[in-house]
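Course assignment 3, question 2. Fill in each field.
Student: A.L.
Task: Predict the tertiary structure for the chain below.
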Amino acid sequence: MTSFDGNLALKPRRSMNVAKSRAYDSRPKGPGKIKTKRVITAHPPNYDHVQQQKIRAIRRQLARQRIKMLFSVVLMVLVVTGIFGLVVYRQARILEQNFENRTIENRIVKINESSSQISEALAQKTNLDLIRHQAMERLGMQDPASSQVIRVSVPDLDRIVFNTTESAGKDNEAYLSDVFTSIEGYFKSMNQQKAGD
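Answer field:
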């Protein structure tokens, strides 16, 4: 049985049992037997070195994946933080505007209170008899006589009288007579309403 060192180009080592069995082999050795020769390479590849290079390549690839994952996680955290910061900023602006509105409302209430106090103080200090007396003496005003008082009664219902615009194209006399009849109809309806009251 032959054993190899790992390189098939090298001559196989023969074990002692094989050498003894060849001695008893009675077959003739012919030209069909191939002899192997040892090929010397300049730098035989070192299995450990190749394995270490593969391990380094795998580690570099894993390191790249970890860096990408870390970068994506940091980016995601920054995006979430930015969105949260934007929401908090908007809420802060809304609260600030609410505080400003409250301040303005309080100022308006204080101004209204002071205005009502000023108008009340002015009303208390106003003496209508003194004003009437000074108006009569300084300006020569007097109380109106009963003939000077005019009473006007205003009806509760509004009355609308329409005038047709077709008559505007006719001569002026016909137009004016239409206007007078419209006005006369208005006053007649007023008289009927007074009579009905």
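Instructor remarks: Residues 47-125 form the longest helix (79 residues). The first strand starts at residue 2 and ends at 3.
Grade: pending
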